[in-house]
Amino acid sequence: AAASLAASPEAAPATSQAIHIVDELVKHAPLYDVYRYDMAEQVAAILDVPVEKAVACIEVPSNTKNGDLSLVLPRLGLTMSPVAAAQKLATEFKLGTAFAAYKAMGPFFNLTFAEDHFRNALLPRIMLDSKSQYGHSSEGLGKIVVIDYSSPNIAKPFHAGHLRSTMIGTFVANLLNARGIAAVSLNYLGDWGKQYGLLAVGFDKYGSEAQLAEDPIRHLYEVYVKINTDSENEREALEAKRKAGTATAADEANSIQDQARAYFTRMENGDAEALALWRKFRELSIVKYKQIYERINVHFDVYSGESEYDLTCMQGYLEKLRAMGLMKVDAGAEIVDLNAFSMGVALIAKKDGSMLYLSRDIAAAHDRAEKYQPDQLLYVVGNQQDHHFRQLFKILELMGSPMAGKCQHLNFGLIKSKDGSMSTRRGKVVFLQDIIDQTQEEMHDVMKANEAKYAHIADPLAVADNVAVSSIVVQDMSARRHLDYEFDWGRMLSFEGDTGPYLQYAHARLCSIERQAQPLKPLATWEEIAATSGALTEPQAAALLRALAAWPDVLTDASVSYEPCTIVKYALRMSRDVSRAVEALYVRNQPEDIARARLTLFVAARKVLGQTLSMIGLRPLERM
Ligand code: ARG
């Protein structure tokens, strides 16, 4: 409609100004949307249905032989039969400049794009639109979403679940930002509870300042394992003595667990000395976490943690639960009975007055509401905690919390392996760092095998590291979130098939074409593109252009489902189309207009594939 209005010669100056704005907007709108609306406007007029309804019934057929857009007529719910409606459209639809052909196929009415119109509208959107990144939008401007992800526990292994949370959370943050939403990424560390009392007791016995400085995460874990073993042994010995009737009062008193409890009580009471040691553990761990996160391209706006919600802070929430009559006393403990909602009983305060993970999450949700005033709060946590979050959200609702109804648990399945841990060929690993290190080493070996290429890479270890991370991420994101998957070392290290290295390779190949084409430049204006893109006649070009045009739709789909596999599937499709196009369409030794048109296509593909990889947290590689 905008285009036909703009062509009207009698338009008054004021109107033409307005039309100019509309025209500009259409120039930047996602291309598939523009075509869908073009189609829907005519469909609406011919069949007498609302435009929005028609738009919702238009699909992109999986086989482009059937056209580029397909109207699924049964979904319109007309009184006329869908087949008759398709026939009516076939007699009345006007192709205009945007479409080249239509076809009524039973209950479907399909349109094929006019290739020149399509190319000339698409390429500038990717190459020339400096307003924003291609496919990004500002629809979410002004919205704030807090994402709680990664959230490992100090002195415990950074397990596979934390890794998945880290990767999915990063993707979700990128996705939100692409829609103009301010994503606040928050790492909610497990850094509070009796186990930190136990850790302090263990450190007293086994700790080494030197090792703590060297690798705090590993050392604290070692100390924790040792003291835990001691405590277990102590408990067993005491049991045996009790059975034999030889347990003395001294045996019964001051167990390791008692000491741990006492230490944690000091922490809860704000004892400066007890807190100083704990704070050191926490701070050194964060420094180390940051190094590893940097390696996997992950960043947080805020490091928070359970420790922010100590006993003092909890009092107000406990009071509120009591005052609202939600809390019941049960054998000395305080609970919220959620049986009416088939959610069992939620334990809030233990008999000894201590708080739990759930209690602290109640306080944390309120605190986030106050600090960030978010429109939404997302928790990226494994589905073992489904029950926990159902209880949490219900309690927030019952309390009338400002976050009620705004929380969502983005859950995911387990990474399975034979013995339940993430193991590599060399055995069980518990540290994220080890997983990356071992993958990197193997990648480096694969790279070294190709000596000629290897010689050109400036920093092979950095590249190997990047490829290693890509393969971990892509394996993780290949299937839908909720599914468990088997950590498959063999598949992960493969450069072929649906893997991270394959995607990086496609990107590096496009970069190489660009390097080798120098000093040739891609087409740089709407006019140049309109004059020259006609050289892109091959089916491989048409297929790649369609893949490029699909990116905004992919982002929209992913924004609804928060499924990273949507992006991975698209990246694989792109990479396959890139590979076919690269093999068919040479840039070197071609007439200049053909060379420039093809180079433009490849630069556009490099930009979009680069964005796609960045969206799932990868760093696109220029050489590998
Ligand atoms: N630290 C927890 C764990 O490792 C995850 C925390 C998730 N976030 C939350 N607000 N509960 O299981």
UniProtKB/TrEMBL annotation:
It is an enzyme of class 6 (ligase). GO terms for molecular function: arginine-tRNA ligase activity; ATP binding. GO terms for biological process: arginyl-tRNA aminoacylation; mitochondrial translation. Its EC number is 6.1.1.19. It holds the Pfam family tRNA-synt_1d. GO terms for cellular component: mitochondrion. Gene3D superfamilies: Arginyl tRNA synthetase N-terminal domain (3.30.1360.70), HUPs (3.40.50.620), Isoleucyl-tRNA Synthetase, Domain 1 (1.10.730.10). InterPro entries: aa-tRNA-synth_I_CS, Arg-tRNA-ligase, Arg-tRNA-synth_N, Arg-tRNA-synth_N_sf, ArgRS_core, DALR_anticod-bd, Rossmann-like_a/b/a_fold, tRNAsynth_Ia_anticodon-bd. The keyword Plastid does not apply. It catalyses: tRNA(Arg) + L-arginine + ATP = L-arginyl-tRNA(Arg) + AMP + diphosphate. It comes from the Eukaryota. PROSITE patterns: AA_TRNA_LIGASE_I. Keywords: Aminoacyl-tRNA synthetase, ATP-binding, Ligase, Nucleotide-binding, Protein biosynthesis. Residues 37-113 form the Arginyl tRNA synthetase N-terminal domain. Residues 503-624 form the DALR anticodon binding domain. NCBIfam families: argS. Belongs to the class-I aminoacyl-tRNA synthetase family. PANTHER family: ARGININE--TRNA LIGASE, MITOCHONDRIAL-RELATED (PTHR11956:SF11), ARGINYL-TRNA SYNTHETASE (PTHR11956). This is arginine--tRNA ligase. It comes from Caulochytrium protostelioides.
